[in-house]
Amino acid sequence: MAGYLDQYGAGEDQRNTIIFRTVGILLIAAIAVSLGWYLFKNHHQEGVVKRFLGDVRRGDYQAAYRDWGCGRANTCSGYPFDKFMSDWGPGNNAPNASLLHLSDSESCNNGVLLTVDVNPNREEALWVDKGSDEISFAPYPVCPHKSSFSIMIHRTVGKLRKPLLR
Questions:
Q1: How far is the C-alpha of 157 from the C-alpha of 28, rounded, in Å?
Q2: Helix (H, G, I), strand (E, B) or coil at 98
């Protein structure tokens, strides 16, 4: 005759397996979503700078100046077209079309700090405002007020973003 507690714990192993698998799948999904968000969070601003760099590569400086946020309707009083041409047009420190590319991207406050390799001797830090998509030179060389943890994440996991920037 079977006792009252003979079946106690039956099905415990199956329940534990289901719980462990569910927790494992949720953990892997959370890591994958977090990594995807981190890799693609600056995608729009990177696209704005890639379009600008493409116009500079093709020699379409008027379009590049408009991409910068300047143009006929919206004149840049602090950055006239002749100064723009001395920075990005043909000349002594001209961009090398084969080397001109994004090399780093970092989200900072209300903008994105993007590093552009212009030629072997020149690297520029550009700033893209998240609200207006206007490009400008970065107001500071590195993002201020970053925690040690976020700097470590950018220096390690941020290397995964480099192939996406090309």
A1: 16
A2: coil
Question: Tokens 């400086």, residue?
Answer: 61
- Say how far apart CA 26 and CA 139 lie, in whole Å: 41
Give the Å distances, CA to CA, from 72 to 50, 57, 84, 136.
22, 22, 14, 17
DSSP states of 30-46: HHHHHHHHHHHTTHHHH
pLDDT for res 126: 94
**What is the H or E stretch that residue 61 is in?**
helix 61-68
The total number of residues written for the chain in this structure: 166
Burial call 18-52: b when 16+ CB within 10 Å, e when fewer: eeeeeeeeeeeeeeeeeeeebbeebeebbebbbeb
Quote the CA–CA distance of 82 and 162 in Å, as a whole number. 32
Q: What are the distances in angstroms from CA 135 to CA 1, 15, 66, 69, 76? A: 83, 56, 10, 6, 12
74 pLDDT more than 60: no
The confidence band for 2, taking pLDDT boundaries of 50, 70 and 90, is: low
Between CA 51 and CA 149 the distance in angstroms is 32
